[in-house]
Amino acid sequence: IGVCRSFCFFASMESSLSSIQALVNEIKEELFSTFDLYSFVSPSSYDTAWLAMIPNPKRPDRPMFKGYLDWVLNNQNDEGFWGESDLDGLPSIDALPATLASMVALKRWKIGDKNIKKGLEFIHANVEILLKEKYHSCPRWFAIVFPAMVELAQASGLELVFPDELKGVVSNVFFDRQQILEMEGLVDEYQYPPLLSYVETLPSTYDIGQEDILMHLSGDGSLFQSPSATARAFMATGNRKCMDYLVSLVQRCPNGVPSMYPMDEELIKVCMVNQIQRLGLAEHFNEEIAEILSQVYRTYKKQESRATKMKLVPAQIYKDSLAFRLLRMHGYNVTPWSFCWFLDHEEILLHMEKNSEYFTSAMYNVYRATDVIFSGEYELEKARSFSRKLLEKTMKLTSIDNNHAMFPYFHRVIEHELSLPWMARLEHLDHRMWIEENKLSTLWIGKASFYRLSCLHNEKLIQLAVENYEFRQSIYRNELEELKRWAKDWGLTEMGFGREKTTYLYFAMASCATLPYNSDVRLIVAKSAIIITVADDFYDEEGSLHELQCLTEAVQKWDGKGLSGHGKIIFDALDNVASDIAEKHLHQQGTDITKSLRDIWYETFGAWLTETTWFKSGHIPSKNEYLETGMTSIAVHTLALPASCFLSPSLPNYKLKPAQYETVTKLVMATTRLLNDIQSYQKEQEVGKMNFVLLHLKENPQGDIEDSIAYVRDILDGKKKELLEHVLMDGFNDLPKPCKHLHLSFLKVFQMFFNSSNLFDSKADLLQDIMKAIYVPIEYQPQSI
């Protein structure tokens, strides 16, 4: 039966691998081989309708761009509206101006009577729901666009009838528009988008001369890269540059007009890299990611070398903060000021707070960019505080308010980001969350709709992510069963004392890093971690001083003949693991690391014995003395260094020697010890033991325990930033990059276990995460694009 089960498992693996590789090849061909920027950009019904309204200069009784008129005719939703819908298929608030503009375009050319009738029925049936129920504080863009589209529709002969109970709400929107028109200039420095970019919506009473329009045309002939505004500008001025822009747009985007043109190609590519990484697919697209980020960095260096005008554009902050995080995570030397420039401008900060709905997505990226903060980067601390404040403000909005009427799922994404720090999250579970919440084709609020990238919702990409995740789950289930059998066979699950954490430990190791499917590292680390947990409990709780001295001596000599009972079980399991690691390394790398492995383990057992001797003798060490021993007894190096020998490139053999550890290893040893001590001081205090928190309190009796915790947290924060810099940046000639990233993964495991409580010692707190990581299939329903 066992042989049959193994055969079926490996046959299933081969089939899954084949399917995954086929999808990878298709996606590489589709998204990277023939990169067509505008095939990834969702069309805007509102902007397309405006281009459909333009009369042909030579035949004013005909549309200049009939293809767009046909698009309007053929892209009405079944429910009668044009524009976007929410996750349930219901119209979002920008469907109102989009539907009105589309009906005006059809009415102008005397076609689509049935479409217009259906559109009017939609407006009359849904305007109350969309306005009254979803209207709380009117967004600036809606206050500008909606009244203008109502007036334009009525002027075109469309019969709009608002119910009496809604007239007050409509009047308020018109009043909001009037206030905006009275208070803002055509192009205010700190208003984005500026009023002039809404030129197609401004009333005839608003005095705009041709010179105002022509003065603000871009070099490409557009008005603020807005197709709808440029369409109106062309109708008002007949300007040749405007026409050239519109003709170029039609040639480039024949299947609907984007809400911004031209788009930033690098922004699209950066978003694609981010999407691939967050879906857990980076391992399949390493070359493509490296090429894109290299190109982005070249652009970054060019911009860094010359002064650029700082434009208050959400798209720019969105791109710059996202690029900063991606580049820094890949080892590029980038400065926080590449996206933190807005912090020095009080007027900009006030504007962003006042118009937070325009900046939610940008602030989300800013907040995530500040995860990768190094020591002394105070601008990132300020950016984190500011972006968190704006995101928390967003969270207070109900799901029917301005921002969330368009993308309610974003509420969950932001909540996840704010509630659990990146350092305490495991990659595998983060990938699952992103797959299940993958509705983020929306990037930021534009003029009259949202900018969306359809490539972020590519169905093949999501299918690949689901298959890849569930394939990993099948591997993890198989490895966990093997691990459970091993632990039971060696007697480690029935010791009669301490913590049985086989599943917890494997879950943490499998979920913390995206290792190759066939990596030995997961089981090497999990087996070692089981031994560490059992042995640590034996030294803490069960063993007599004599038994512990005998076990430590046996590890020193690597000879367990004189041992019995629990000590014998621990040593035999340890010998099995160390021998297995050494044998694998000899086979794969051609060198014998047996002595180095034994030395590391002896160092760890020696630290446990030292701590037990302190406790039993009543000796109270100094903080420095304690930390020196505690960094070893936490045993994270005992996991990280042997495992690093199986990465590519692997850890050099000479780096395994005790007392000669590199800075990055010492930092992960210190940070994990301090994390543990912050959450375990109460447990230690109850049995009369010391840890770093309690030692500081003893040395500073005038303070209280909260002062001591704050002191340790401050040290921990500094060391985490230092560790992050060592891991991410090149120039520290200590360990190969994959080995350093594994060090960071171990810190994240400890941060997960000890972030706000001691989850490691809990019995059930992690069960839901374990189920999601290993057992429960992805909750994802394929959607049509």
Automatic annotation (TrEMBL):
GO: which molecular function terms? magnesium ion binding; terpene synthase activity
Keywords (A to Z) from UniProt: Lyase, Magnesium, Metal-binding
Coiled-coil ranges per UniProt: none
Q: Which domain of life is it from?
A: Eukaryota
- Cross-referenced Pfam families: Terpene_synth (PF01397), Terpene_synth_C (PF03936)
Please name the InterPro entries in this protein's record. Answer: Isoprenoid_synthase_dom_sf, Terpene_synth_N, Terpene_synth_N_sf, Terpene_synthase-like, Terpene_synthase_metal-bd, Terpenoid_cyclase/PrenylTrfase
**Which GO biological process annotations does it have?**
diterpenoid biosynthetic process
Record-annotated Terpene synthase metal-binding domain positions: 488-722
The cofactor(s) it depends on are:
Mg(2+)
Q: Where is the Terpene synthase N-terminal domain?
A: 220-401
> What protein name is recorded for this chain?
(+)-delta-cadinene synthase
- Which species is the source of this protein? Davidia involucrata
Organism lineage:
Eukaryota, Viridiplantae, Streptophyta, Embryophyta, Tracheophyta
